[in-house]
């Protein structure tokens, strides 16, 4: 069916213009610093509506369906605002939590959710029942229309940049300054995008031709992909699963399943009675599809092993969600194949429509308190710490800080409260993680730093402690990476004056500095190691240090000086 677009262009232009002005307002709020800049929950909510609803309207409105389109798209736009408000609230308190880690996941999931909701709302607004063939056409029309409209808007912007550069080359800077002003380019690009949507919506016959072309290409590629999947499955009993896990096998299997399902749904998109293959190839295809649940079982086993070993992480939560969604399709197909054999395509259409709604629901739930991966991970990690499955001294504070947003912040504050008295170095690491790096203030308070400094013997002077604090607090990232500081007196140059070794036990290595008194002040130098100290060697090193097993060795080769130039033998 071909959509004839007679909708007055003024309305489409108005929608695009309003979108551009809304995005301009939000940009200026961030740039200048007025509301809602300091309230990320409102930023996320308003950006969600500003992006989602106008695009849904531009792609759906046509004469006679305005009320139906608004009926189905407005609730989704409102829901997206509510979910955006929740996700934005996870970036609070704003002085400690950045929303960088929230952006990609939120944008990605809402893109998928909007894509799915758009084609379902378009189909329902048309008054026809839900069918996979109709949804498939809507999905490709929407995807290609938006892609081509963005290409049009990008080309428009490139021409403007060329325009400005040409006139700037002859001394006329007006156009370059105008085109780079947000007050110009937000409305201009939004209008260009709106015009692009209007133009390409009138070319549905071309878009449908492109869709049929990719169907023809995937028809041949699907046969090869099924062959690869069958051969790989039959090779596994001879190789075992261990080589698969060592090479990231779970992710590879999920990719293979995703490609198989994409190709199957691209090829079998028409009426269930129409088969693009001969009978024996048709049976070969569905034999390969019937084996997909085995791949789901293998990937579930591999992912479960990782969770048992290391607990939940954001990536593992995503992997399990993808596994679940990819497992639903072949399970539904398998039931149709077992029941209908050659006529299983009837079941394919039903499964795709139903599981498509499950995918939509999953993308929305991820951005709600009901399935917030950050909360799941933070809770699991706290539980593993309580069960002594994680060494609290090796806690990956940076992961909590950079990946888990507000739940990570709350978890670290809880850890700090519980372990603050017994592990001051851990408290120092947590405080450094939330340090304002733009501030000119020292990276840590002196008393907090000295509490994390373990003096192994002797009584260092206050001037030495102050010098160590001033030196070490200059590097915030090193403090965040340090499990413990040790201070040990030793006369390293044998001049009769005590020097001090400052040993910093980082998460993955050990640093050693010598502090010595010269020119009426404490100075420091790094000591280079003949070999890296990592893994179990770290604990052996610390045990030897604390027990005083220190040996001072004279160099085998003395330093040679000739006319003020020094020479030393290099190992």
Protein topology:
Blueprint: H1 9-33, H2 40-60, H3 66-89, H4 100-125, H5 132-169, H6 174-179, H7 182-201, H8 204-239, H9 242-246, H10 249-267, H11 279-290, H12 292-310, H13 314-340, H14 345-365, H15 373-386, H16 397-403, H17 405-419, H18 424-433, H19 446-451, E1 453-455, H20 462-472, H21 476-480, E2 482-490, E3 499-506, E4 510-518, E5 521-526, H22 536-546, E6 560-562, E7 565-567
Parallel strand pairs: 1-2
Antiparallel strand pairs: 2-3, 3-4, 4-5, 6-7
Helix pairs in contact: 1-2, 1-7, 2-3, 3-4, 4-5, 4-14, 5-7, 5-8, 8-10, 8-11, 10-12, 10-13, 12-13, 13-14, 15-17, 16-17, 17-18
Can you offer a commentary on this structure?
By secondary structure, the protein is an alpha+beta fold. The protein has 3 domains: 194 residues, no CATH class; 165 residues, no CATH class; 127 residues, no CATH class. Helix content is 66%, strand content 7%. The protein contains 22 helices and 7 strands. The strands form 2 sheets. It has a 5-stranded mixed β-sheet with strand order 1-2-3-4-5, sandwiched between helices. Strands 6-7 form a two-stranded antiparallel sheet. A hairpin with a 2-residue loop joins strand 4 and strand 5. Helix 1 packs antiparallel against helix 7 and helix 15 runs parallel beside helix 17. It is globular, with a radius of gyration of 32 Å. InterPro entries: DUF4153.
């Amino acid at each position: 069916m071909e959509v004839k677009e007679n909708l007055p262009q003024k309305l489409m232009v108005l929608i695009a213009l309003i979108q551009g002005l809304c995005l301009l307002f939000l940009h200026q709020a961030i740039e200048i610093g007025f509301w809602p800049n300091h309230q990320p929950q409102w930023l996320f909510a308003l950006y969600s509506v500003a992006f989602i609803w106008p695009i849904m309207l531009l792609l759906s409105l046509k004469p006679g369906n305005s009320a139906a389109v608004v009926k189905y798209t407005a609730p989704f736009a409102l829901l997206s605002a509510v979910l955006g408000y929740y996700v934005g609230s996870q970036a609070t308190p704003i002085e400690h939590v950045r929303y960088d880690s929230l952006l990609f996941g939120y944008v990605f999931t809402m893109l998928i959710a909007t894509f799915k909701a758009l084609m379902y709302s378009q189909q329902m607004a048309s008054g026809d029942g839900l069918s996979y063939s109709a949804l498939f056409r809507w999905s490709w029309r929407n995807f290609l229309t938006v892609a081509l409209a963005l290409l049009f808007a990008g080309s428009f912007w490139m021409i403007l940049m060329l325009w400005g550069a040409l006139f700037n080359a002859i001394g006329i800077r007006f156009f370059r300054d105008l085109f780079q002003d947000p007050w110009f380019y937000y409305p201009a690009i939004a209008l260009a995008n709106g015009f692009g949507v209007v133009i390409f919506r009138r070319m549905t016959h071309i878009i449908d031709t492109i869709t049929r072309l990719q169907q023809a290409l995937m028809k041949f590629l699907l046969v090869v992909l099924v062959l690869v999947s069958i051969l790989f499955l039959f090779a596994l009993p001879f190789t075992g699963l261990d080589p698969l896990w060592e090479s990231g096998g779970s992710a590879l299997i999920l990719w293979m399943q995703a490609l198989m399902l994409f190709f199957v749904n691209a090829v079998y998109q028409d009426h269930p009675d129409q088969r693009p293959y001969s009978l024996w190839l048709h049976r070969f295809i569905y034999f390969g599809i019937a084996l997909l649940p085995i791949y789901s079982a293998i990937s579930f086993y591999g992912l479960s092993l990782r969770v048992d070993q290391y607990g939940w992480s954001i990536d593992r939560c995503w992997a399990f969600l993808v596994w679940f969604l990819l497992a639903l399709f072949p399970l539904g197909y398998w039931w149709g194949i077992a029941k209908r054999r050659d006529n299983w395509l009837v079941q394919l259409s039903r499964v795709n429509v139903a599981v498509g709604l499950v995918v939509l629901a999953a993308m929305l739930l991820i951005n709600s308190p009901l399935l917030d991966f950050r909360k799941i991970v933070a809770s699991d990690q706290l539980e593993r710490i309580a069960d002594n499955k994680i060494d609290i001294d090796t806690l990956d504070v940076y992961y909590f800080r950079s990946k888990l947003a507000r739940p990570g912040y709350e978890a670290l504050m809880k850890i700090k409260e519980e372990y603050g008295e017994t592990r001051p170095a851990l408290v120092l690491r947590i405080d450094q993680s939330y340090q304002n790096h733009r501030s000119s203030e020292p990276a840590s308070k002196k008393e907090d730093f000295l509490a994390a400094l373990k003096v192994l013997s002797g009584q260092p002077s206050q001037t030495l402690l102050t010098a160590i604090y001033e030196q070490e607090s200059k590097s915030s990232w090193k403090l965040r990476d340090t499990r413990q500081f040790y201070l040990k007196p030793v006369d390293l140059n044998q001049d009769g004056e005590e020097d001090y070794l400052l040993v910093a036990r980082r998460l993955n290595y050990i640093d050693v500095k010598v502090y010595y008194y010269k020119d009426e002040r404490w100075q420091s130098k790094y000591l280079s190691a003949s070999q890296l100290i990592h893994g179990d060697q770290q604990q052996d090193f610390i045990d030897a240090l604390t027990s005083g097993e220190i040996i001072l060795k004279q160099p085998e080769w003395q330093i040679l000086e000739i006319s003020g130039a020094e020479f030393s033998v290099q190992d």
